Amino acid sequence: MPGPSPDRAGGAEAPLAELRAQIDEVDAQIVDLLARRLQLVGEVGEVKGRHGLPIYAPERESTMIEAKRELAARRGVPPDLVEDVLRRCMREAYAHEKNMGFTRQAPDLGPVVVVGGGGRMGSLFARMLTLSGYDVRVVERDDTPEQVAGAVTDAGMVVVSVPIADTVRVIRELPPLPADCLLVDLTSTKRAAVEAMLESHPGPVLGLHPMFGPDIDSLAKQVVAVVPGRDPEASRWLVEQISLWGARVHEIGAQEHDEMMGLIQALRHFSTFVYGWHLAHEDHDLSELLALSSPIYRLELVMVGRLFAQDPELYYDIITASPDVVALIQRYLTRYAQAFELLLRGDREEFVARFREIGEWFGPHAQSFLAESRSLLAHADSTR
């Protein structure tokens, strides 16, 4: 198809150049306003830090977003555009605020010892605790038993953050802790770890599971599962401290936690592993798959591919951490085979019935997920 004639293209250059210059000027003003916004965010962070306020205030966020959407509509600007920009600004704001420091919720607590504090998750918690004013010590695997004993002798809290397969052993090998020391673990399965802590330490015990990776910009809106162990009053300050960091805390029993993690982590990671294995052996070029992919399939490939950029031993440990996972995966395989039978029989009616049954289980969440996914897909498409 021929392009515009030289005369038409040449005639457009001058007005386009002028309009683009004006757009560049507006963009520069936007950058200046963003810089000013970050400056104000820093001041907000300092005030919150002095007064013990969490960096994430969901009511304030939702009220502000709704007000700006209404303002956008009145100004003739798409509300979704304004919300997208504001949410990106807020994400940067939370990352900026986390460096401002936090009120120390347990001012009289003794030193905090992070066992495995050189690892990624351990170093993240060590940093957040340091920002909150605690005296943090780090213990690593090459430290001698005498060094470990010296580090914990006057500890107010000991946090165990080591690989899943090593967690129970490391807990059992800890030297005696002060009677009032809070013992905490950060592993992704809780029943065995909490039992080991209760057996090894007569003082307060708390299980934590950060439901995020260590490469996050901020704990704002992240979820931390809290599994009670012993003497919950002695660990209340830590739960409050985590809330100040902006995380959402969800309390759950160890048994129920591990059952939920079977679905949320183990089954999902195993399914992703098998799907990636299948793709790798179907003899098709990944670049061609990407070239032909819709936004939703590209997003699926992104989520599959990110797994294989990470530590395979970690994911094996996550998948196999609970003895109940094998039975869970077996039930999944049984249902997969039953679904496949529908295709072999060409049973459209049964497929539709099962589809509707599943839709009823999701209930109103299905429609809200549909709306939520639109913004995710739009973002995925814009980054191609």
Automatic annotation (TrEMBL):
Belongs to the prephenate/arogenate dehydrogenase family. This is Chorismate mutase. Residues 110-373 form the Prephenate/arogenate dehydrogenase domain. Keywords: Oxidoreductase. It holds the Pfam family PDH_N. InterPro entries: 6-PGluconate_DH-like_C_sf, Chor_mut/prephenate_DH_T, Chorismate_II_sf, CM_dom_sf, CM_II_prokaryot, CM_T, NAD(P)-bd_dom_sf, PDH_C. PANTHER family: PREPHENATE DEHYDROGENASE, PREPHENATE DEHYDROGENASE [NADP(+)]. It comes from Ornithinimicrobium humiphilum. GO terms for cellular component: cytoplasm. GO terms for biological process: chorismate metabolic process; tyrosine biosynthetic process.
